[in-house]
Design goal:
Layout lengths: L10 H4 L15 H16 L4 H15 L30 H4 L2 H13 L9 H9 L11 H11 L3
Helix pairs in contact: 2-3, 2-5, 3-6, 3-7
C-alpha cells in the first residue's frame, strides 16, 4: 500500500472530475522530465495552482510528448513549435520565445486564466479553449500522467 505524504497535492484537487476516458502513458526521458519540472516551476511563478500545472502538462503531453520541438519541416503543423506547439503566426510569440519552456508555459497559462471557470471544467475543455486543436478530446488521455507528474515534482 502506498503511503501518501502530507506535502503532496491531493489527487481530488489535481483531478477534480475524475479522468475522462482511456488514459495514455509514456515513459519520460531526462529531457521530458526536465520539461515537466519547468512547466511546474513556471506555473508556481505565475501564482497558479497544481490544477493549472496538470492542465499544462497534459496539454504539453498531447502536443509534443513533453519534447521541446523545433520546426519539423514537412511534418510540422503549420509553424507550430515548442512544448505546446504554439504558433508565431497566431501571436504566441517568436520562435525563440515559444521554444523557451518558461515563456511557453506562461503564455499558455495566460490563455487559461482568460477562460472563465476553467478550474471547474473537464481538463480537455479547458485545454481546448486555449489551444483550439483540431482534436479537442485528445487532451483528456494525459490527465492521470500529468497529475502523477505534478504529485511527484510539485514540491521537489
Amino acid at each position: 500500500m502506498a503511503v501518501v505524504q502530507a506535502d503532496k497535492p491531493a489527487m481530488d484537487k489535481l483531478i477534480p472530475h475524475g479522468v475522462q476516458g482511456d488514459q495514455s502513458r509514456i515513459d519520460l526521458d531526462d529531457e521530458q522530465t526536465a520539461n515537466a519540472k519547468a512547466i511546474i516551476a513556471a506555473t508556481k511563478k505565475t501564482g497558479m495552482d497544481e490544477r493549472a500545472a496538470v492542465v499544462s502538462i497534459a496539454t504539453a503531453l498531447q502536443e509534443s510528448k513533453l519534447e521541446n520541438l523545433g520546426h519539423l519541416g514537412d511534418r510540422n503543423d503549420h509553424d507550430s513549435q515548442g512544448l505546446f506547439q504554439q504558433r508565431p503566426s497566431s501571436g504566441w510569440g517568436t520562435v525563440e520565445q515559444i521554444t523557451d519552456p518558461e515563456y511557453a508555459t506562461t503564455a499558455f497559462l495566460k490563455g487559461l486564466k482568460q477562460v472563465d471557470g476553467w478550474q471547474d471544467m473537464p481538463l480537455t475543455k479547458a485545454a481546448q479553449t486555449v489551444q483550439v486543436s483540431a482534436y479537442p478530446d485528445h487532451y483528456a488521455q494525459w490527465e492521470q500522467q500529468a497529475a502523477d507528474l505534478v504529485t511527484q515534482h510539485w514540491n521537489s
